[in-house]
Design goal:
Elements lengths: L1 H7 L2 H21 L14 H4 L8 E8 L7 E4 L5 E5 L2 E5 L5 E6 L6 E4 L5 E4 L4 E4 L5 E4 L9 E6 L3 E6 L4 E6 L4 E5 L20 E3 L5 E5 L4 E5 L5 E6 L16 E4 L5 E5 L4 E5 L5 E6 L20 E6 L5 E5 L4 E7 L5
Length: 338
């Protein structure tokens, strides 16, 4: 009988047969491995990272250590000072990178902005904290609901605007923390409305005339709003060319210069550029290679980026907060390249 025949086969032979079958399965799997795709099918962004040297219109003025652990945010002050935030601290620097003051905070600010009256507002992912002009804490606002993730702040004489990447809206507060309105909410009957925010990068900023702007990263551009949320104008530059904004969601950071030109930072193809107010490319500030982040397919969709934030000082120099280097890089436009 079949059962009797199985009993006649030694146990060690069953083990040998099992190993043989396993080996055959592995061999077949290896032999069936798909071939690598052809060059035309590979996702390779490296060629787009190459920049004509004549397009680089800025030079590095300096590189200063930031003096904080895990630097996350950068902001310009109205008296020439610059603020750098990191783990449990905000450091105040002068125009030459010298530390002037250090404020202790609990936690790591995701973003910050100084008000015209000298108050410093810190975005702590789910709530906002306020420091007086000397760095003393004066207020902690209530925690936001839902999936709130504050990634950028902008402040004018009356309003505090907070970009909430988690809920994909811009929140408008008064100085006391009262919510005055929500900007950019998606309309149920308009699929094209609202901010497209695939990752935790979402900037809000105020131009030299006092107008409110927000980056719409998924649409690769900027939108201009009234304080009540009415959309005034917009421009978008999706694409892989040097004068365009690439990837799933760019720019990740932005800042205005005094002439209303705007500085942009991209991830994936890590690069920094400047555009005119009508969206024409002025030039490149820094390439991926200059930022120590050469482009390849593995980095093109990563959430992390070497540039943690940017700011423009009162002389229009561009300050770049580089996380891995724990430093601020300062760039200025070359003479004759205006």
């Amino acid at each position: 009988m079949e059962t009797d025949r199985k009993r006649l086969i030694p146990g060690w032979l069953w083990a040998v047969l099992a190993v043989g079958v396993l080996g055959a399965v592995i061999a077949l799997a290896v032999a069936d491995k798909r071939r690598e795709p052809g060059a035309s099918l590979k996702f390779d962004v490296a060629p787009f990272a190459k920049v004509d040297p004549t397009k680089i219109r800025f030079c590095q003025f300096g590189r200063f250590p930031v003096g904080v652990v895990k630097p996350t945010a950068l902001a310009s002050g109205h008296d020439g000072r610059m603020f750098v935030a990191g783990e449990n601290a905000v450091v105040v620097l002068d125009a030459n990178g010298k530390e002037l003051a250090r404020y202790a905070v609990k936690g790591t600010p995701e973003c910050m902005a100084e008000a015209p009256d000298g108050q410093l507002f810190l975005g702590m992912q789910r709530h906002i904290e306020v420091l007086d002009p000397k760095g003393a804490p004066t207020a902690t606002w209530p925690e936001l609901s839902g999936s709130a993730w504050l990634t950028s702040l902008a402040v004018d004489e009356k309003n505090v605007y907070a970009a909430d990447a988690g809920n994909r809206v811009v929140l408008r507060f008064d100085y006391a923390g009262k919510l005055l309105g929500t900007i950019g909410e998606r309309k149920p009957d308009d699929a094209a409305s609202g901010f497209v925010v695939p990752s935790p990068y979402f900037d809000v900023l105020i131009d030299p005339s006092g107008a409110l702007w927000a980056v719409n990263p998924g649409k690769h551009g900027f939108e201009n709003y009234r304080p009540d949320g009415e959309l005034i104008s917009s421009w978008y530059k999706p694409g892989m060319r040097l004068d365009e904004l690439c990837g799933c969601c760019n720019p990740i950071h932005a800042a205005f210069r005094s002439d209303a030109s705007v500085v942009t930072v991209e991830k994936g193809l890590n690069r920094i550029k400047v555009y005119t107010p009508d969206a024409k490319l002025i030039g490149v500030v820094a390439t991926a290679e200059m930022l120590g982040a050469p482009a390849d397919g593995a980095t093109s969709c990563q959430i992390e980026a070497p540039v943690k934030d940017i700011a423009v000082d009162r002389t229009d120099r561009i300050w770049v907060l580089h996380g891995p280097w724990q430093a601020v890089l300062v760039f200025e436009q070359e003479k004759g390249n205006t």
